[in-house]
Fold each of these.
Amino acid sequence: MKAMRLHAPRRALELDEVAAPEPGPGEVLLRVRACGVCRTDLHIADGELEGGRLPIVPGHEIVGTVAARGEGAGRFAEGDRIGVPWLGWSCGECGHCRAGRENLCDRARFTGFHRDGGYADYALADERFCFALPSTYGDVEAAPLLCAGLIGYRALAMAGDARRIGIYGFGAAAHIVAQVAAYQGRELYAFTRPGDSVAQDFARNLGCRWAGDSDATAPEQLDAALLFAPVGALVPLALAATRKGGSVVCAGIHMSDIPSFPYALLWGERSLKSVANLTRRDGEKFLRLAPLARVRTEVRRYPLPEANAALGDLRRGALSGAAVLVPV
Ligand SMILES: [Zn+2]
Ligand SMILES: [Zn+2]
């Protein structure tokens, strides 16, 4: 089978011919139909995350059909279409796992980081961590739901019942969470790279009340802010835009350093928190909600061998919505 593999950080992925893997106990082998490209893949390719495996097949927004099942795997039938997210395995025994916070498990194994992911013709997954997918989405359209959608949803949930929500960085996650938040009757304010009028128009078309530059002042004080851009300098700006008692939620796995800022920005019981990974419960809840909220994903398709071009477009901010790889 063909796989796009990362052999060393800061090098382009290489198109390798490798043996198709065999499913072990509890695993399914998937024929990959589509795999989303996430900013985390860019952080992995750039060597910004510690602890991953090399060489690795990135990709943790996998839509595939079950081609074979390992011993004891019976949750899905051969031919079923399922999704594989970033959380590929957790221990099930530690305090975090037992408290329903498997996203924080110290021994968690992540797809496309510790385990080979979906930038390939075939991928293996532990069936317990896979999701059934709503039938209303095509393969390519479903892929971004599996990380951009899930993480956006977890970040939005952390904002509680906040009504006026600021979104910093309007890429794949934001374009999905904006539709969910609009469905829930919230008011959205989108902050983009200064001068990015394409992203600002995109945000308004998806129901945002206002869209402007990240250093602009929003027309209203925010109840909460969600940061999807990996830019630490946005944290003080977001705190300054948020009312007393409100929260600022950082949704990325990696962020540049946060500059020091006056305590007055945090004072007034504002809170600053991060979102780490996902739980299976998040996935189940979000994948039920997405079709109800009529979430539509804006996707750009790339043939699998063009994974480097997709990562390059993501790096340059040249995408509206999400890039998705399709095996050829
Ligand atoms: Zn991701
Ligand atoms: Zn655990």
Note: Residues 280-292 form the longest helix (13 residues).
Amino acid sequence: MESNSDVDLDPNKDDLPLRANTNHILVRHYVLDLTVHFERKVIGGSIVLFLEPAIGSCKQGEPGSVSKTEVQNGSQVSSKHDLSSPITPEPNELIPSEEPSCLSGGNDVSDVFWGDESEEFNLVLDCCDLMVSKVEEVDVTTVSNLKELLVDHRYANADHLSSSLVQRLVSMPSVCWRSQHELYLQCSRSPTVLNAQPLRFHMDQWSLQVRKEGVCSSHDFPSAVRIWYETKPTGGSVRWTKDQDSRCCVYTMGSPINNRALFPCQEPPVAMSTWQACVRAPCDYIVLMSGENQAIPKPAETGFLQWDYYVTMPMPASTFTIAVGKWLEAGVNVPNFEVEKTDETCVKVLSADQQYVCSHMDYPCRFMLSAARTQTVIPHRVFAPPCHLQKAKDMILPLLPLCMTAAHSLLGVHPFSRLDVLIVPSGFSSLGMASPHIMFLSQSVLTGERNLCGARLCHEIAHSWFGLAIGARDWTEEWISEGFATYLEDALWNHVQKLGYREAEEQRRLKALLRWRRLSDELQNSEVELQVLRPNKENTGEVSESGASLVKHALNPEKPFMQVHYLKGYFLLKFLADQVGEEKFLHFFKVFVGKFHGQLILSQDFLQMLLDTFPAMSSRGIRLETIFSDWLDTPETPEWLRDSCSEWSQTPVVQEVREEVAKWIHFSGSGGKGSKRKRSGPKVNFKELSPEQLVLLLEFLLEEPKLSLSTLRLLQTTYNLQAQDAEVKHRWCELAVKHKHTAAYRDVELFLIHDQAMGVYLYGELMVQEDARQQALARRCLSFIKDDMDQSARSVVEEMIL
Ligand SMILES: [Zn+2]
């Protein structure tokens, strides 16, 4: 059931459409009321949207429909309007389509009767893979407490009573957030408007469109709308799977389509909203979610428990995350010290050393709470399936407070009040994912020494500031989130390890070299277009008249496995840090966070403030335009980067690796051929290396055309490679594949099964040598795990294998 406007939209095409007309109307709050049905693999119930006409949206004769051109061309036809500038309506030359005067039931309207040229106002929501059964106008006038808000009679226009009430509700001051949420809840449970027909709606592949008969302006559109719907078992962003102990679970997957298959919403990041959710799940399951509160489940209908969560900080709907499963909590080792946002603390006079001035819209901000400002560690819990519980407890629980303290010390106030960490099922396609109040971690970080896990925790924790509290206004600027988190990962992890200046600098250089090698490898093996951080160049951040846009390359199947936004973004920040000095640069981050938290940014917001703060940079020729042209708008590698990598190679920790590599090559070349004579053991003394050094050592050895069998055997025993972290194991598997080291094929198999977040390209390496045994291994592993695999990983692997 696709509308005509979708005919030219190829689902496999690169770009992801964001269709919500956020320039006309905005969702300010969502109330979700959902039940999780494991037997049917469906989440169903209702969502109530509290809507407000956007500032600047025209009052009458507004052409509200999504036109074909608008969706196809996205930002190319974008106007220069932003949310705050008024939009002049185009002369309305559209001919109204013939529509039936009365539609029985008001259910989904067929293509024929929907009429893209209708003059009626269209509420366009982003969604896919949902079954919507009914859309209705909620009668908020039945909520008596709400009417008390209308002390001013100017609002009491009978025709617009409902929208006046919702307007008052959404604009209640943040000090009253508790009563506001209570009112939202009461409103969401109100009946439909008496004698009113359900609202007409229409679905196509990427959107749900809603109209009210005769209503032509967003200002006359119902301000509280309830949508009854169910998700689909195969919905693109809701993953029904089994945990590592073979027990059912479901979680949202985020990127690239975010929550579209979970609930209809406004996807463009400018649509920042708050939400509350009541989720019912069978008694033996736990519900983890983006919510400020640690929900205490209440008995619901027979066999079900109800979990209530809420947030008071407006955020893009894409950041909402939920996971439901039979996970266990890995012990608690920190007392609960949640900071209460009471009305009193909110208005407290702030101390003189207060360094933050909130520029965001009004919400109960932690940056303004003195108790929150001094909180170095926020309340946290760790959840895992039983088979990983002990490892999660041993590895993550001791690290979390250390990483949080480091983050607090470098970045300031934790933007969120608490954190749950979940070890997600093995099919999760990355090492970690940060969302408000909840972090997904791959089981791959649980093995080896603590370096990989610690650095990953630091990376995800950094996202609380960069990615969540400060988001990208245009999703093509992924580097704003990933480049920053990658850069901060080193700074935070060095802080945790209490490294001295020299040691920290050496670590930074070693990491930089490793990342440079990865980036240059990726640049050689991926499409040029995907290597540009700002593919829309100066048009970045622009949207069409309605607010719709396209996210460049977001649907490209290769995209989720590309690291260019992480790596090139990180190098840009490293380049800038080199100009002003690491310490000053990190201090600038803190100041930047103070100014921009709670807001969405474009690259220039950060860069301009940096250039203004350090004027000496421009005298050295570093200007906004040169940063754009050298770093963000080109697939080329900046000169600085090419020059720097030779410098990083000279660093002592790298030299140490080179010396070891030379020993190994010598060993391999001179008789280490596995002859009986050598059984007595090697005479070579190999130095102990850190996990990062080990990665580099194996990478250098990977460049060798030939390594003897005994060298590979000795490598394995010298460094106990099977017990190392997943990054080391990955290189070891590559070596084993390259040299057809059959004794290590079991290691390769285990890696492909247990480290799915990292093994995708190993399948390609197994296929490329056209070795029957290797190809059989790849096929065997794929068939063993394909049902649990992440969909995009599976399609990439199947492409390589079939
Ligand atoms: Zn604030």
Note: The chain is about 35% helix and 15% strand.
Amino acid sequence: MAKLTFLGAAGCVTGSKYLVEAAGASGTSKKLLIDCGLFQGTDDLKQRNWNPLPVDPKTIDYLVLTHAHLDHTGWLPVLSRDGYKKPIYANPATIDLTNLLLKDSGHLQEEETKNAIKNKWSKHADPRALYTADDVTPVLAQLKPMPRKGGFDLSPEFHFESYDAGHILGSSSLELTITENGKKIVVVFSGDVGRYDQPILNDPISPVTKQIDTLLCESTYGDREHDPGDPLQLLADIVNRVVKRGGSIVIPAFAIGRTQTFMYYLRQLEDLQKIPKVPVYVDSPMALSATDLYVKYKEDHDLEFAREERGGGDPLDVHTFQLTRSVAESKAINDVKTPCIIISASGMVTGGRVLHHLAQRLGDARNCVILGGFQAEGTKGRALQEGAKTLSLFGQPVPVKAEIVEMGQFSAHAGKSELLRWLGGLQATPKQVYLTHGEPSAAQSLQQAITEKLKWNAAVARYLDTVQIG
Ligand SMILES: [Zn+2]
């Protein structure tokens, strides 16, 4: 009997890992892992990254990724080091992004551990990195392409159909058909579901299968809607008020994804002459042009690249745009005393260069921090969102005097009614739904809505629970 174990993103929004076990064609049990994410946020969650999996990685047969975000891929180096040596399947855009994210993550883990040792910040007697850049290298060689959309026969027992989830470049919902003893079982993984009617990315597509035995649905915003209001006007108001008082804006965001949404809006506001042309720094150690990735993966978005097609400006570049790559360039932004906008990772302020920009600028009431994405429990981003008066950065308490603005309009996740719209688009009634990838109140709220509005069987997934899926 096929079964599924929630190895992460159950009761929390990080650490996505779902283990499927089914009887294989040869009579032996086959194990398939969907996603391999890092836990982020509270100390308890982060501790799970250090615990061995309840299943020996050497015994896992297959691995498939829904998208590249670290909470879906960031534990791959540990899994590989612990014995998983087989292919990791993902579509080409997800492979490119996972490359960037994991290399960055490996360097960051090393750098932060070195700093913790040098400055004695760690609570641990012997701080060490969860993994290093060297642990990342073999993972990159294990990544193997699968189609962006349509069918893919992974093995005699596992077949996938992929659908654009509209969340980031390459993000997918996966429909898995398991053939077990001649019987077909269909499991749908929503992955992270994006938003409808937004610029840049496509709308999420609901899988069209006529049979769903089990559905795993994310519930990040399962208990709330995104703020109404025109993001263009709201952003114009913020930029104008901060520039007027001589301040700067810091936006925590990874270099690919929300960064482009902000750039797109800022560019429009500049062209409409609704904001002054202030310098925008995208501070990322990755030597890349995000635009190149958007040009490469055109099927994921509806941006028209004027640069390429009409020989004009690039819709993702503001007029005064600087990509900083080296540490020296990044630190030089500290010397910019005139109004500017700094976009830097990580999006939930869990690490990365945004920490030093915040250390530099949080203490000045003229400045502003825009939180555009979901801020998980236990992260510094959540502390800012909840109105913390000080933030501990590099072992020092930094007073929070800057204005903190939450802009849910820039979230890459569907709000509650958008999740219900995605569910309503399914063409089969799932026999059982499990709510994953949400904090308990969000998952419960969506469960209640599904039960009341759709009359489907829905339960909140529990960490390490194993359920029958056939
Ligand atoms: Zn995601």
Note: Residues 67, 69, 167, 192 surround zinc ion (CB under 6 Å).
Amino acid sequence: MIEVDERGVVEFTQALVRIPSTNDPARGRTERPAAELVEARMREWGWDPVVSEAAAGRPNVVAVVEGGGGDGPTLMFEGHTDVVTEGDLSTWTVDPFGGEIRDGRLWGRGSADMKSGLAATLYATRALQLAGPFPGRIKVCALADEEGLMIGAHHFVASGLADGVDGAIVAEPEAGEICAVAKGALRLRVDLTGKMAHGAMPQHGRNPVQAVGTLLVALRGLQRELQERHPAHEHLGEVYVTPTVLRAGSEEQVNVIPATASVFVDVRTIPGLEHKVVADRVAALAAAEDGIEASVSVLVDRPPVDVPVTDPVVAALAAAHRTVTGEEPVYGGVPGSTDGTVLTHWGGVPSVVYGPGGKWIAHQADEYVEVAEIVRCTKVFAEAARRFLHRDF
Ligand SMILES: [Zn+2]
């Protein structure tokens, strides 16, 4: 097994957690200081990272580590430097940016999602490099804004940096599960336009609020129909069509029929269901009400990920998990989207998600990661890289 710097990876995780890298310009916070720490560590190791801004103050850091062992594939390790807000401090029993280790756990915002995973990718790559030449190369990437619109990953793909990458390991916390599938997310805004009128004379108006009711009932029918046509996925569960936001009228004007109403819908999809089909169906249902005009806009479109377990990057990771832990890998699915969604769908790179930390601890108060898990995951990453690059899986 490849020897990793166990103390180094844990201390580096602590240092990252101590940087409050939420995207909150009003409080003077972005990912930049966390990205700079990653860049500095890469430079200490003699790597030559390229820093590019996905947006002002929001850098991507990308280093290519050549193996010096001849031709071979390109493996990508991916992590994000941003974290979600710590939220209400009174719900925390530890300092969210203290990076404290207690009871074998490293505590703080981003400890699981995903500064430990990011640290593990760096230290795994360093370990493999110190173990001697290897074929091909590893692209180590610390990207911005995973928790927002994923502008870091989109910028990465748009800059051509995903070209030539043969596989990507995304270090999100998945409790040791190998997740080669991820659910899709489609967020729609439906605008319904009628005609404003006095509540006393509704016959002179066309009421979009009534059309909202019709649409909500129809959306429940659509969910039922899609669930029947696309049975639950073993790792991802059901398709969901969930109305989440309504907007119409004004409390100060209860006697006025408003001209417009809007319904926002959050659709969660599984492989085999095309987002365009869903958007077209919602548009048709919205247009069903007489005298009401409907238009549908797509706010977010992140298709599901469905990488086969036989893909080299998944197979190498599974073999590495077996070697390091002595246990059979457990396969799972990602309930939301990750940067892997962008890499696979828009960058054409097969991706798999695997990393230290529990699936459900992300974004919660008292977030933590088991210290032993950080170390184990670093070893799995190093071994996975070795196997992927040597095509030994
Ligand atoms: Zn994350």
Note: DSSP finds nine helices and 18 strands in the chain.
